[in-house]
């Protein structure tokens, strides 16, 4: 070979090598967040920077398949495509009415150089408030289906951020527990971390990891590994998928996902901001989901509901025997009608569910029938009477009493005229259970039923696709007041910065018997509450849920100050603003419905004064109704003060929050 020919060959080889090593940079529309992708010999890697600071560095991505091995080493990158997405969409139910999907998208095609030459596309969306990516399996000639044993998505976090997360012993969980605050580097290896998890960096940058569009796939968790070479301040989080039933929980090779191509994973989501309120206000999760798949949603009505199980099915002195019967339901229906509460929930009485079941402790027995009421309860009579009073009827059902006969049961519910139901005790998020929940939503929509999931995994934004999912639990909530004292104001302050980042969160709100901590005791009927009444009123604004509970019994509210606010507060919104927030300390949220604003503030066990600025308001005057902790709430936590004043956008109001306290206000445009 001549010297000139050799030089030319070396030139092109060096150019090809340089191109192969060149990073692909995808910036958010405002340029503050950059996702950088690099294909190495061992695996694809990515970095995430925010304002030129590296938050996640050189994190590897790979997938392990049963029988066909790892997809990660020795890959070839085809030409990526990048485009700007800018669209708005309407939410049937949500924390906003109109959302904007504004991001830069990259489609990065990857294929193996050898063997079967499988192809997988990495889809990346970079928003102004975060990053998301997913794996897409296009239809291809030599690969028809797969069984996934591990998804090794990693997050190599820099600077040893402070973590706030729920740690779990295993994948069988209702996701109801206390959150832990700890430096990332201090977490023991292999600790199973639920999502969303919040990471606070030393410079007060915030990053939360969760997932969106969980559909036909296994739920994701995180576990920690120390950084390579013991790099100080660096820890690697690796995705862990919930195994299919009858699989070893963490054993190598256990089956996690089975799918036929084409297929795609959920989105791996990183919410990012230098203000923690940015994460709460974000609409990334719904933007990453498909549009509504229910053709007609005119029947769907968000609102508030009773839930008599919580209060112990309390009725006043009666001329009838309380129980699973019409008269007991009528008492609650009349209460709803008189106070503009949209729904009454028929649950149980005397620890026996409303439907026929020969199992113990609500667990379905061999002859369970969720479409047949117990003797003495005429569900048609209940539904007919409620309809006359303008109230919808809902029921509670153990999931496995429902699922084997879904269409049969829902057909009967539609015939009776039920509006919806709570589905409970699933306690799994493997692919099989994820698909069951999706099937429940689809079938329920066909029969004009809304769904409230309890004993269930976190939301992933799918209420955009199936808006008949009005709320779900996945948190330790006030139901525990019936058997423990764990639901405290300090615990409440963990929600907005962790679980609530995933979306609507159901709690048994409305307990109107707050007592000082020294007087707190466990009561299964008429449960007592920690914190002040204003704290619990404010939870209706701080939390996001499209089906709010009014869980106490009717006479608990009669003549009580503050109940008028519970009756008027909406459950779906047009806009949300976080006005004040200090993680795990306090928060003030403003939510708009029409021209009215509802503002809720809560604090932990520390009393404090918080300034509230109204510069988010349009010009003009507003009449503000204020409900605040009374001066004597340390002795009488149910006491509150009410006042009305005029507010404009130039005003700043300092509100006083007692220990475990709160404050709410409603602003009406004058």
TrEMBL record:
<dbReference type="GO" id="GO:0016798">
    <property type="term" value="F:hydrolase activity, acting on glycosyl bonds"/>
</dbReference>
<dbReference type="Pfam" id="PF10566">
    <property type="entry name" value="Glyco_hydro_97"/>
</dbReference>
<dbReference type="InterPro" id="IPR013785">
    <property type="entry name" value="Aldolase_TIM"/>
</dbReference>
<dbReference type="InterPro" id="IPR017853">
    <property type="entry name" value="GH"/>
</dbReference>
<dbReference type="InterPro" id="IPR029483">
    <property type="entry name" value="GH97_C"/>
</dbReference>
<comment type="subunit">
    <text>Monomer.</text>
</comment>
<feature type="domain" description="Glycosyl-hydrolase 97 catalytic">
    <location>
        <begin position="309"/>
        <end position="474"/>
    </location>
</feature>
<feature type="signal peptide">
    <location>
        <begin position="1"/>
        <end position="20"/>
    </location>
</feature>
<dbReference type="Pfam" id="PF14508">
    <property type="entry name" value="GH97_N"/>
</dbReference>
<keyword id="KW-0732">Signal</keyword>
<feature type="domain" description="Glycosyl-hydrolase 97 N-terminal">
    <location>
        <begin position="26"/>
        <end position="291"/>
    </location>
</feature>
<dbReference type="InterPro" id="IPR029486">
    <property type="entry name" value="GH97_N"/>
</dbReference>
<dbReference type="InterPro" id="IPR052720">
    <property type="entry name" value="Glycosyl_hydrolase_97"/>
</dbReference>
<dbReference type="Pfam" id="PF14509">
    <property type="entry name" value="GH97_C"/>
</dbReference>
<keyword id="KW-0378">Hydrolase</keyword>
<dbReference type="InterPro" id="IPR014718">
    <property type="entry name" value="GH-type_carb-bd"/>
</dbReference>
<dbReference type="InterPro" id="IPR019563">
    <property type="entry name" value="GH97_catalytic"/>
</dbReference>
<feature type="domain" description="Glycosyl-hydrolase 97 C-terminal oligomerisation">
    <location>
        <begin position="573"/>
        <end position="667"/>
    </location>
</feature>
<keyword id="KW-0106">Calcium</keyword>
<protein>
    <submittedName>
        <fullName>Glycoside hydrolase family 97 protein</fullName>
        <ecNumber>3.2.1.-</ecNumber>
    </submittedName>
</protein>
<keyword id="KW-0326">Glycosidase</keyword>
């Amino acid at each position: 070979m001549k010297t000139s020919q050799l030089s030319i060959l070396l030139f092109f080889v060096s150019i090809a090598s340089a191109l192969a090593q060149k990073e692909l940079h995808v910036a958010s529309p405002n340029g503050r967040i950059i996702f950088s992708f690099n294909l190495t010999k061992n695996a694809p890697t990515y970095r995430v920077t925010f304002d030129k600071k590296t938050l996640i560095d050189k994190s590897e991505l790979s997938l392990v398949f049963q029988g066909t091995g790892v997809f990660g080493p020795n890959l070839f990158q085809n030409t990526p495509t990048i485009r700007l997405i800018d669209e708005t969409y309407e939410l049937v139910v949500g924390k906003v009415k109109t959302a904007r999907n504004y991001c830069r998208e990259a489609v990065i095609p990857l294929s193996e150089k050898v063997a079967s030459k499988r192809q997988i596309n990495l889809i990346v969306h970079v928003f102004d408030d975060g990053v998301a990516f997913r794996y897409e399996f296009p239809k291809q000639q030599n690969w028809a289906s797969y069984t996934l044993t591990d998804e090794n998505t990693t997050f190599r976090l820099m600077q040893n951020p402070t973590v706030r997360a729920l740690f779990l012993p295993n994948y069988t969980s209702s996701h109801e527990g206390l959150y832990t605050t700890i430096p990332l580097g201090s977490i023991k290896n292999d600790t199973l971390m639920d999502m969303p998890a919040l990471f606070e960096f030393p410079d007060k940058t915030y990053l939360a990891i969760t997932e969106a569009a969980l559909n036909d796939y296994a739920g994701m968790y995180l576990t920690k590994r120390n950084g390579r070479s013991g790099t100080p301040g660096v820890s690697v989080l690796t995705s862990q998928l919930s195994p299919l039933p009858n699989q070893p929980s963490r054993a190598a090779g256990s089956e996690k996902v089975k799918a036929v191509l084409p297929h795609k994973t959920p989105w791996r989501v990183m919410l990012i901001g230098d203000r923690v309120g940015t994460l709460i206000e974000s609409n990334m999760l719904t933007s990453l989901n498909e549009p509504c798949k229910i053709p007609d949603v005119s029947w769907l009505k968000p609102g508030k509901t009773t839930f008599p199980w919580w209060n112990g099915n309390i009725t006043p002195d009666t001329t009838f025997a309380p129980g699973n019967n019409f008269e007991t339901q009528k008492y609650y229906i009349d209460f709803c009608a008189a106070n503009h509460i949209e729904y009454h929930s028929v649950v149980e009485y005397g620890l026996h569910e409303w439907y026929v079941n020969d199992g113990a402790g609500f667990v379905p027995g061999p002859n369970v029938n969720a479409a047949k009421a117990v003797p003495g309860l005429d569900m048609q009579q209940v539904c007919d009477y409620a309809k006359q009073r303008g109230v919808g009827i809902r029921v509670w059902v153990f999931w496995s009493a429902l699922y084997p006969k879904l269409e049969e049961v829902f057909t009967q519910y539609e015939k009776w005229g039920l509006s919806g139901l709570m589905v409970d005790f699933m306690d799994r998020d493997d692919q099989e259970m994820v698909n069951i929940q999706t099937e429940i939503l689809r079938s329920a929509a066909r029969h004009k039923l809304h769904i409230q999931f309890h004993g269930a995994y976190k939301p992933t934004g799918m209420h955009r696709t199936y808006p008949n999912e009005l709320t779900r639990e996945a948190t330790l909530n006030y139901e525990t007041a019936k058997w423990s004292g764990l639901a405290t104001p300090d615990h409440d302050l963990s929600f907005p910065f962790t679980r609530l980042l995933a979306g609507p969160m159901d709690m048994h709100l409305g307990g109107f018997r707050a007592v000082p901590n020294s007087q707190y005791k466990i009561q299964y009927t008429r449960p007592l509450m920690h914190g002040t009444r204003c704290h619990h009123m404010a939870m209706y604004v701080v939390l996001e849920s499209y089906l709010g509970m009014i869980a106490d019994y009717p006479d608990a509210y009669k003549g009580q100050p503050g109940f008028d606010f519970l009756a008027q507060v909406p459950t779906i919104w047009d806009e949300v603003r976080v006005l004040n927030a200090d993680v795990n300390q306090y928060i003030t949220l403003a939510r708009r419905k029409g021209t009215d604003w509802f503002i809720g503030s809560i604090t932990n066990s520390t009393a404090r004064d918080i300034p509230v600025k109204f510069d988010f308001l349009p010009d003009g005057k507003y009449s503000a109704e204020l409900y605040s902790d009374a001066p004597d709430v340390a002795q009488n936590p149910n006491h509150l003060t009410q006042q009305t004043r005029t507010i404009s956008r130039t005003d700043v109001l300092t509100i006083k929050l007692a220990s475990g306290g709160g404050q709410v206000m409603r602003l009406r445009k004058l």
